[in-house]
Amino acid sequence: MNKTVMIVGATSAIARATAAAFAAQGHDIYLAGRNADELARIAADLAIRYRVQTRWGIFVAEDLASHDAFFTQAVADMGEMHGVVLAMGYLGDQQAAREFSVGMEVILVNFTAAASILSHCASYLEARKQGFIVGISSVAGDRGRQSNYPYGAAKAGLSIYLQGLRNRLYASGVRVITVKPGFVDTAMTYGMPGLFLVASPQYMGERIVRALNKSADVVYLPWFWRYIMLIIKFIPEPVFKRLKL
Question: Which letter does DSSP use for residue 109 in this model?
């Protein structure tokens, strides 16, 4: 039986590319998202293109109470779950998100809902003593900047949550990888000013799968973002707070 990988937030460009990269290696795929028509189209394409078993289920990030039943049903549908890729994210209008009535949705989707579904995945994999979790965070979480601090704060929280899961699950043989993308050519970043060194979703998907064969626990994609963010993190706060970033 092929090992099943679940992609949470499966209709995003990065998620699609990651699903395709796993399917190309022979993994069965379970797609989780809120758009039934799009999920069905992606599942059909993967099944035809790579001849793997694909199924999908409706996952509503904000409905935290539904996460347990959703994951239980997904496992029942596939028979087992070997790995999980958390690929959901919501940038929103970061200017508007400075008001918490708007920003709370950014935090809910990018951190609270992510922690909720990952808690169920972690307990399942821990009991099986095998498998992996890949959580897609962001370089935005490495330092708070005025342009996107609600989103950055949520992603920073996700990175720390994944770090804690990595510590918890290590003894069980479950791998936890934090992926921190820079700018990626997706619908979420379309039209944003000041973009540079933009990576393709296909590049991201291939590198995410490749990361499982390497030893790094935290992966910056593309690789040079590790050094860009290292420079940004070491700017002294008295200087940094004056910058318009």
Answer: I
pTM for the model stands at 0.91
| Cα-to-chain-centroid distance, residue 16 | 12
Which class for 77: exposed (0-12), middle (13-18), buried (19 or more C-beta within 10 A)? middle
SS3 136: strand
Single-letter amino acid, residue 109:
V
Ramachandran region, residue 244 (left: φ > 0; alpha: ψ -120 to 50; beta: rest): beta
Cβ contacts of 235 within 8 Å, gap of 6 or more: 243
Domains, the chain, in order of start with CATH, read 4-240 (3.40.50.720)
Query: Which residue type, as a one-letter code, is found at position 244?
Result: K
Cα separation, 163 vs 175, in Å, equals 11
Residue 219 confidence (pLDDT) above 90 = yes
